[in-house]
Amino acid sequence: MPAVEPRPIDKLDDDDYPAYTMGRAAEMLGTTPAFLRALGEHRLITPLRSEGGHRRYSRYQLRIAARARELVDQGTPIEAACRIVILEDQLEEARRMNEELRTRDREPQR
């Protein structure tokens, strides 16, 4: 019986794959490229660069940018919005890790 080779990871399914150009990302978010650059300046998201030096964004980064845009649209200054989103992301990660530890502690010991 021949060995079955694993399916290559589909880059389009990868939340961290930088699939979107700045123009496309801005269009999807209903914002401007300047807004995305500002998020980078405030270190909320750091886009990867293509070989030609163009900014490329992942789906994960677009979700983060969309949350920042919601806050800015509600009147939050961009600096504060970026800090809030960073803290929300850190809180979510801490909750995830806490749940993993709880689940591991509930498993029977061998």
From TrEMBL:
GO BP of this protein: regulation of DNA-templated transcription
GO molecular function, one term: DNA binding
Cited PROSITE patterns: HTH_MERR_2 (PS50937)
Gene3D superfamilies with a match to the protein in the record: 1.10.1660.10
UniProt xrefs under SMART domains: HTH_MERR (SM00422)
Annotated HTH merR-type domain residues: 19-87
Protein name as it appears in the record: HTH merR-type domain-containing protein
Source organism of this protein record: Streptomyces hundungensis
